[in-house]
Amino acid sequence: SYVLTQPPSVSVAPGKTARITCGGNNIGSKSVHWYQQKPGQAPVLVIYYDSDRPSGIPERFSGSNSGNTATLIISRVEAGDEADYYCQVWDSSSDHPVFGGGTKLTVL
Amino acid sequence: EVQLVESGGGLVQPGGSLRLSCAASGFIFSSYEMSWVRQAPGKGLEWVSYISGSGSTIYYADSVKGRFTISRDNAKNSLYLQMNSLRGEDTAVYYCASVLGYGGARLFDYWGQGTLVTVSS
Fold first, then answer.
1. Of A41, B64, B103, B118, which has the maximum CB count within 10 A?
2. How much is the pLDDT for B104?
3. Cβ contact, residue pair A92, B103, below 8 Å
């Protein structure tokens, strides 16, 4: 089955740029979606189709996807961005969704 | 406004059964594929099951296949998960989520608040 690999944690200072990676075999050929989950809350979609933002998500959130790595980019990081972030694809071979293991973003 | 509200969680003994429900509103429920996703305490997201809008196509994760049954009642705008032969490793918050998109591009656009299932003696 398809595997997505994320770093367990990423730390960034306020106002700087955070990059959270999601690795997978030829992931650039797939559509990647990203979810933000704050403690005690349900996940929220923040990026879909690699780089599109749902309404209500700040422009500071963006995404890219190429080769074997997809990246969630958060510019001008704020304290409120501290959360767990998960990448997700839909594996066509099994017709099942797959989540990455999640990355905890810490704002220093 | 889209709303997904789960219910039915609780404490159950190993080997027991539980039925989760998800009440949907704010969208044409019958047109949407749906899924259950769970999250064990302190762990990541794990997809559990999927059902098409008509209910004709159903998938399960290997970890629950043969024990869990997903279903829906489009007349009642409701999604269900019947969980049998429960194990300690099934302890988790269970979320229902609506599925958007087609084929290999599908995603989860709306999530409920979750319901906690605890399997313990």
1. B64
2. 87
3. yes
Counting every residue written for chain B, the total comes to 121
- A71-97 pLDDT, tens digit per residue, is 999 999 999 999 999 999 999 899 999
Contact A34/B at CB under 8 A: no
SS3 state of residue A32: coil
pLDDT band at residue B102 using 50, 70 and 90 as cut-offs: confident
Q: Which of A31, A45, A101 sits opposite B108 (nearest CB)?
A: A45
**Amino acid in the structure at residue A14:** P
SS3 sequence, B59-107? EECCCCCCCEEEEEECCCCEEEEEECCCCHHHCEEEEEEEEECCHHHCE
Query: Which of B47, B95, B113 is closest, CB to CB, to A97?
Result: B47
pLDDT digits (tens, 9 = 90+) for A4-51: 999 999 999 999 999 999 999 999 999 999 999 999 999 999 999 999
Instruction: Please list every residue in chain A whose beta carbon sits closer than 8 Å to the beta carbon of residue B44.
Output: 84, 86, 99-102
Confidence of residue A54 (pLDDT cuts 50, 70, 90): very high
> Do A101 and B111 count as a contact with CB atoms less than 8 A apart?
no
- How many CB atoms lie under 10 A from the CB of residue B30? 14
The rounded mean pLDDT for chain B is 97
Q: Look at residue B103 in the predicted model and tell me its pLDDT.
A: 87
Give yes or no for a contact between B83 and B67, defined as CB atoms under 8 angstroms apart: yes
CB contact under 8 A, B109 and A95: no
